[in-house]
Amino acid sequence: MTYRSVSVLTLVRGRQVHLDHLIAGLCAQARMPDELIVAFMQDVAPRVPPDCPFPIRLLQIDGDALPLAKARNHAADQAEGEILAFLDVDCIPDRNFVKRAIEAVDQLPDGVFLPEVRYLPGNPDGWLDHTQRAPDVTKLEWAGKRHPAKPDLSMCATRAIQDFGEIWGLAFILTGKTWDSAGGMDERYVGYGAEETDFGRRLERAGAELYWLGGTVCYHQHHTINKPPLQHFESIVRNATLFHECWHEWCMDYWLDDFARRGLIERDADKLTVIRHPTASEIAKTTQGPEVRFS
């Protein structure tokens, strides 16, 4: 296997325990990353352990709203690795994550790779072993559940994906060269939604290739979700409208359709109109219990 340097990049606002688990997963890798870049969107830097087997660099990202596209761009700009492995702070990578990233790029240099994600239930005791320094692999394998809309990659090395709309921010891997060819992410997207879908279109336009990546699993740590995410109503509407202006089609149709059914918006092929904003009571009623792992 060719030596290739790997930068793992993650974004943080809160979620200290989740970050602790992500770092523990990286410390247990079969092949260590060359660095971890933590782009934090909060006033105080998150805690990181002083004795990691790889350097950790902290970047503060300004902005009250969630500037996810901006944070990813800044992290990518600062990365020194040939390979950029974006990993959501909620994810615990299995021990093959970095190794499989390198193997995939060796085989398909222009590829963008989506590793399998399995979702964990709520667990106040966490997912580390008795040492509290490494993930408990047995517990993760037992508890992790694949999203029903995603394929089983257990017997797959790589599999081509035709629809670039599949790309998501939870975990994706590509070279810095491929990232640059797409121009990074559009920082006009602020808050929840659409910046990843827009980036997928940019990658497609740049001639990148998209693949599912088997041989590794990222375990998504539970956090409370809303179905639909009414707490992000304004940013979803704004970002969906921006996406339509850029690509002449809608994204996040599933959420927009739900908003329309609730009488919050009206939408046709060309225009979205806000009828009213959700109330605090409506938002509260969409909050899901600890047994709900994904939307």
From TrEMBL:
Pfam families (alphabetical): Glyco_transf_7C, Glycos_transf_2
Keyword Transferase: yes
Domain of life: Bacteria
InterPro entries per UniProt: Galactosyl_T_C, Glyco_trans_2-like, Nucleotide-diphossugar_trans
SUPFAM superfamilies to which the protein is assigned, alphabetical: Nucleotide-diphospho-sugar transferases
GO molecular function annotation: glycosyltransferase activity
Top EC class for this record: transferase
Domain Glycosyltransferase 2-like, first and last residues per copy: 68-133
EC number(s) recorded for this UniProt protein: 2.4.-.-
UniProt entry keywords in alphabetical sequence: Glycosyltransferase, Transferase
Ranges where the Galactosyltransferase C-terminal domain occurs: 165-215
Family label: Belongs to the glycosyltransferase 2 family.
Protein name listed in UniProt: Glycosyltransferase
